[in-house]
Amino acid sequence: MTPSPELEPAPQARILMRSLDRATLASALPASQAIPEGQGAAWPYASLVLTAVDHDLAPILLLSALAEHSKAIAADARVSLLFDGTTGLEQPLTGPRLTVLGHARRTTEPRLRQRFLARHPDAALYADFSDFHVYRLEITRAHLVAGFGRIRWVEPADLVGAPVSMALIEREVDIVSHMNEDHHDAIDLYATRLLGRAGTGWRMTGIDADGFDLRRAGEVARLDFAVPILDAEQARAALVALVKQARAAL
């Protein structure tokens, strides 16, 4: 899902972060790790990571302690993530990309681990290895480049958008499980009729106030609600309305 250039910067940033399942992680690699001499200032170090996003837009990562970026984070928690929405464009520099600055903190919160694994089910193969840990990025600021001349800084409070609802967070797993087990046909309709994606077998991986995430093998998709939701009842009403819209498009 590519954000419309007509949107305000904060909604564009939210769409990019929630639509993409990977980013480039930039960290400060200590000189002792980066070069044989091992002296001087840290070196910029960029690596590809898989991402999920929490309800408050905080990125969630699953990293191995053996990786160079994890060693860098242990020395300096300041990092940035580049979310690149330019894939497939003939002129990439006309497309949107977002750099999120913040501090990466290790967390043992089960909910964040579950949200990441729902987004990346194959990661369950190694998530229990002793060297893997979940990180949550505490956002300091974000820098959006939406195309030529459309460049803005976005503050954390503006990124969040709809209020974070604990009532929805507490029911998220139940809602997602119910949709995948009992309404997989509706999920396929969301993907094919409303998002123009191909194939069947799509699964819902997460739901938040603004919309929900889908996955089919290595492909991800995002569908936003017309208006934000705050609880399971509003989620049900919004999902039913989207099914009716999808069936009307047949």
Keywords:
alpha+beta; 250 residues; 8 helices; Split barrel-like; 11 strands
Give an account of the 3D structure.
The chain has two domains: 152 residues, Electron Transport, Fmn-binding Protein, Chain A (Pnp Oxidase, Chain A); 83 residues, Split barrel-like. Helix content is 33%, strand content 31%. The protein contains eight helices and eleven strands. It is globular. Helix 6 crosses helix 7 and helix 7 packs across helix 8. The protein has 250 residues and is an alpha+beta fold. Strands 1, 2, 3, 4, 5, 6, 7 and 8 form an eight-stranded antiparallel sheet that branches. A three-stranded antiparallel sheet has the order 9-10-11, with helices on both faces.
Q: What's the topology here?
A:
Blueprint: H1 9-19, E1 22-29, H2 31-34, E2 43-50, E3 52-53, E4 59-64, H3 68-75, E5 78-84, E6 97-107, H4 110-119, E7 132-145, E8 151-154, H5 156-160, H6 166-182, H7 184-194, E9 203-207, E10 211-216, E11 219-224, H8 232-248
Antiparallel strand pairs: 1-2, 1-5, 3-4, 4-7, 5-6, 6-7, 7-8, 9-10, 10-11
Helix pairs in contact: 6-7, 7-8
